[in-house]
Each structure stands twice: as structure tokens, then as C-alpha cells.
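Dear support,

I submitted the protein below through the web form. The confirmation email said the job was done, but the results page showed an empty box. After a refresh the structure appeared. I'm attaching both so you can tell me whether what I see now is the final result or a partial one.
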Amino acid sequence: MLLLAFLPLFAKSQDFGYFGKKNLLGFHGTWFFRAMPQFFYAEKMYRYNENSNNLTGNALRNHVWHAGLSYRRILNKSHAVGIQADYSIRGLGDPFHDKTDKVNFQADWANINVDYSNLTAFSSELGKVVRMSDVNITPTSISVIDVKAIWSRSRTSSVIPLGLTSTWGLGYQMINANFSRSMYASGFTYDDMVGEWSASRETFQLQNAPNDIENKYWGIGWMWDLSLNYALNKSWMLSFGSDIRGTFLVKQAKSSSDMADLFLSDPNQNITVEGLVYGRNMGKEIRKELIFQNTFRLGLVFAF
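What the results page shows now:
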């Protein structure tokens, strides 16, 4: 009789949620193979070879891991809302590989009153003028912290979050360029003594970026995830699936003129190769890297 008395209450508690639990804490990792963005942004990766003292180029194929966590509150049988945070580190290829992009990057310094009609810049490291139309540089890495508001919807008749679940997300990205490792460049240089360009590329180590440089960016990101959840016990679930994510806006936190003040200039007060590489506005590069990503996702979900 006592069991029958409490049966309606027990049934009501199981109406939705995971064994009556309405809070979900998720831990996940996603693997992203950088193949699709090549359609939008084809570039090369150049690495410095100490033995030959030159740069070796190959196609950029990044393997990127995201790690993150999420919290969701179950609202009813079919819906849950919450927040998700991800962290990743990835490499950018050579921005000067495409001649069209070279002009765009130098246009970021238009307020410095520099004549780029010949696409040349002075190198503080070499003490020579370098032809920028032929420059290759080693890669830059960026770290991304991604925070999104998420909404999940069950795709099956089972009680959320079991079964197939779709999740939509929209939020804010904090992006930081990392110049902790030395960068190298190669290009044709102008010899003032003979008054002509060199016959072969010259490889040189770029001067290190200033310690106080803050090459930071912010962006707006979106996500759509489709995951299948498998119950392990009354508190834990295994979740695996795939998500599509991207970025539709990237902005530099500091102005180009502020960035230019951090770098040495040549005797004519022109911006240097080092300034163009370390101080350039990388918003266009970053957006093209993050514009579309298709990932595989694996995680654990704790219900409480």
C-alpha cells in the first residue's frame, strides 16, 4: 500500500529528465581535420630547415583538438538550455602565399603613410629591403577560447537527453596570436652596393615580437551539433557525434596604429618586415581559418 501511495509521485519525477535529474554537466573533446577550409583559403605551411638553412613548404593540413565542457538545464521532455566553453590551439599558414592577400595586409598600414607600390619593406634583422611579393614565413599559432549559449532538442521520442539530440549554439570567441617561438622568413633582397635584386632567396630569423605585444582578437561563433547519447548508469552517459561550427566576424582588439608603435622602423620611418609579420592585423587570416569546421565529438555527461 505504501508503494502504491508513492507510485504517482515517482512517476511524476520520471516525467522528464535523466532518472529525474534535470542538470547535465558534460566533458568533451572534438577532433577537427583541416580539409574543408582549403576550399575557402588555400595556402602553404613553411617550416625552417636548419640543415639547409631555408624554408620547406607543403600544403597546410591541420589536425586540431578542441577540449571543453558544457552545462545544460533540462526544461521539458524535448528541450534543454545552457552554456558551453571550448579551448583549442591551431596554426595559420603563410599569409603572403596569395599575392592578392599581400596587398590587403599592407593596406592595414595605410595610416602609416608607406608607399607599397613596389611591395617592398625594410628588414631590421637584415638591414636590407625585402621584396614582399616573394616573401614566405613560418606559421603563426593562435589559441581560441569559445563560449556559447546552447539550446538542445531531442530528436527521438525518448526522454531527453537519451537518444539523438541536436544542439545549436551562438556565442563569443576570444582569440590570441602566439609568437612565443622564433619565426623565419625568406625572400629576395635588394643590394644597395650593386643596385639590384638578389638572384636567390635569403632566409633570416625575424626579430622577436615585443614582450608587451597584445595581438588579441574577438569573434562571433556558431555551432550545430548532432550527438547520440548512450546510458552507462543512472548518472553517466557516453555521448558521440559530430558538430559543424564556424565564425562570421573577427575583429582586432587593438588598432593598427597602436600596433605599429611597438615595432622598429627603417631610417625613413617606414614599417618593417618584422612589423608586417608580427604586428599585422590577422583578422582576415583567422576568419578564413575558422569560417567552417566539421568535427568529430566524443564526451561524457554527468547528470545530477
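Response: this is the final, complete result; the empty box was a page-load delay. The CA atoms of residues 170 and 221 lie 6 Å apart.
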